[in-house]
């Protein structure tokens, strides 16, 4: 999550370049195998770069499914959906697609709903699109910007809920609500207001994801 010093039009800042940011992307062989055995494709941001390996181990242990990932730090959802489109064209898609994207869309929330709809269109009606919702209140910024972060996170989540009303195969994994139901979790399960603590927050978030994927 790289931003400029400006608070931007929505108060959270302006997203910087993410082209050179840290990433974790499965090999073509891993992607092809995951597709062939109907595992899970995952598209995420820096949270997923951090937590993806642990998630893959947890999912494999739960129902035997492999996880192929295209995770890229600081990437907004438009880039994640571009990667989904590329994999769909190159490899085809398994029946479960996991989007763990949106944290970097707090900088430009109005564009988010169109990207969710685009992802649903790519996935099609016969597959399930799972989406982890968003909780961002960065500890490193001023209180005013923190308020904008929370407002924009809620704005993004409302767009997700609106899209779910339209598309029954869009399943929301409610990470934000899980954190908020017991406020101490915001302190104990997030190390910087965005990324889960390891292992406590990482295990909690990954368990929510796996429960949804295998239910």
Please provide a written account of the structure.
This is SGNH hydrolase-type esterase domain-containing protein. InterPro entries: SGNH_hydro_sf. It comes from Kribbella soli. The chain has 215 residues and is of the alpha/beta class. It has a single domain (23-214), classed as Rossmann fold, CATH 3.40.50.1110. The protein has eight helices and six strands. It has helices spanning 28-36, 46-63, 77-91, 112-123, 143-166, 175-180, 184-188, 200-214; strands spanning 23-25, 40-44, 67-72, 96-100, 128-132, 170-173. It has a six-stranded mixed sheet with strand order 1-3-2-4-5-6, sandwiched between helices. Strand 4 (96-100), helix 4 (112-123) and strand 5 form a beta-alpha-beta unit. Helix 4 (112-123) packs parallel to helix 5. 43% of the residues are buried.
